[in-house]
Amino acid sequence: xxxxxxxxxxxxxxxxxxxxxxxxxxxxxxxxxxxxxxxxxxxxxxxxxxxxxxxxxxxxxxxxxxxxxxxxxxxxxxxxxxxxxxxxxxxxxxxxxxxxxxxxxxxxxxxxxxxxxxxxxxxxxxxxxxxxxxxxxxxxxx
Length: 142
Description:
This protein is mainly α. The protein has one domain (11-133): Up-down Bundle (Four Helix Bundle (Hemerythrin (Met), subunit A)). It is built from 4 helices and no strands. It has helices spanning 15-37, 41-68, 75-96, 100-133.
């Protein structure tokens, strides 16, 4: 059983964003599995790195969509993103110290942060873009 199952409620209706969200959830599932079931520190660290790299890619995609379509991104948006990456660094430190409980707590935080990000921030973005689609069919290209 997956740590996080994709649910219809996560869908934004923006294909590129939904695809990336599914990948983010898959990377979180892989990380959770690695931390709980694999004694190989390399696999755990590789899972963290994939999640971190893909999250940066996703955030860049969203920021490019914002910029291309004239939406402003406030500082609070970036502060929340920075906090996510701070938690990734904490996770790396906990794994290096073999602090399993703290690692699992941080993974749980990343799970909840990601789901909240999808349901709040990304759904709001999708709503705005869908309204714009009605007047511009080229809206959703990056």
